[in-house]
Write a structure and sequence with these properties.
Blueprint lengths: L1 E6 L2 H11 L6 E6 L17 E2 L7 H10 L4 E4 L2 H6 L1 H7 L4 E2 L3 H8 L1 H10 L7 E4 L2 H10 L4 E5 L8 E4 L2 H13 L10 E5 L4 E4 L2 E4 L3 E3 L4 E2 L2 E3 L3 E4 L4 E4 L6 H22 L4 E11 L2 E8 L6 H8 L4 H10 L13 E8 L12 E2 L2 H5 L4 E5 L2 E4 L2 E4 L3 E9 L2 H14 L17
Parallel strand pairs: 1-2, 1-4, 2-3, 4-5
Antiparallel strand pairs: 6-9, 7-8, 7-9, 10-17, 11-12, 11-17, 13-16, 14-15, 16-19, 17-18, 19-24, 20-23, 21-24, 22-23
Helix pairs in contact: 1-10, 7-8
Bound molecules: adenosine monophosphate (AMP).
Length: about 425
Amino acid sequence: MKILVIGSGGREHALVWKLAQSPHATQLWCAPGNAGIAQERLAQNGRAVECAGISAEELPKLLAFAQEKRVDFTVVGPDNPLALGIVDLFQRHGLKIWGVNQKAAQFEASKVFSQKFMEKYGIPTAAAGTFSEAGPAKAFTATLGGKCVVKADGLALGKGVLICRNQTEAEKAVDEIMVSKAFGAAGANVVIQEFLEGIEVSLHALCDGTTAKIFPTSQDHKRALDQDEGLNTGGMGTYSPTPFLNDTQLAETARRVLEPFMRGCVAEGIDYRGLLYPGVMLTKNGPKILEFNARFGDPETQVYLTRLENDLVELLDASASGTLAGHELKWKPDASVCIIMASGGYPGNYPKGKIITGLDAASNLPGTKVFHAGTARAGDNVVTSGGRVLGVTALGKDLRTAQTAAYAAVECIQFEGAHFRRDIAAKAF
Ligand code: AMP
């Protein structure tokens, strides 16, 4: 099977790495890919993975590429092409593609849509209101005593969520989003949720339109600095499994969230085939959904795919074809820890083109895989080309062992200004 993966981050490197292990994969491209992706080879025939210089948002070019190369199956990593309708476009041209269609991508593209859906179908979530005018929005925050979270409706590069401790902050947040339009059209409407206290975990489920298969739990670390200080980022590290939900509680959460979700999708005419990634707060009153994402999380993908035993080509094909019910997800008992090495300055401005050394030494450690996120090749060197540069991932018989192994690999790698958190997975202990 000839496969095309779309995207260029650590998530896509993990997808490519896992797909390349399948005996079904005979040729694999990634658009646009990165330096680490270009080093992968297919298990079936030793063929190198090729990077195509097309960005993930250039839908017509991606379609032309898939047609020209006679790609059998396309796998979409990031949210943007999904929200732009890449799945619908490829399907209209008779091409098989994995990822949610544009209607299903609304769960991520519109927080108002998701909030209303959760309320309509009884999915446990925060007490919330949705507003198109600042006055009523502020009146609602007052009913919450100002302790709330104000969220711009649309995609805002992960920045449109403002956490408020009192009414003054809440009114400022509403003004910033709705009046000053800090996030442009994405802030024409807002969702305001009560502030929930608890432990935050990531859930993932693979869906095929009617069936949803839950993954084990994982936890991301969104803040840039240790002890959850500093600015929000795209994720500084993950681990799986987490100790916060046992198997029974996970199954119960899946029942309370995924069953009404799939039922609601069928009722609303949404053919949800792809990945569902709910952000969850484990509160003293049970799990509550904060938001839905409609794709794999990054860096959650790195820890999930290092633990997954199934053939990923078969699973994603079943998700796209509506035949997931016949598959059982199998996971290694090992724990996995992923530590993000980021460019100095990230998530603010950062330099690019810094030479990275020690990659081979890190990769040669047993149980370790260095996924590339923002890297490029410059002559004989691999250099930094993004904020999040590497996802250094290790498996171990338990979380401690995996954490120690991942940090040992991080210590092998150098680039000027590199920064990473030293407390990834520490919450589990
Ligand atoms: P979201 O993009 O909606 O997941 O929000 C980004 C982050 O804001 C989440 O990962 C949480 O850490 C935090 N957050 C969102 N909603 C709430 C809430 N209702 N209560 C507490 N924290 C929240």
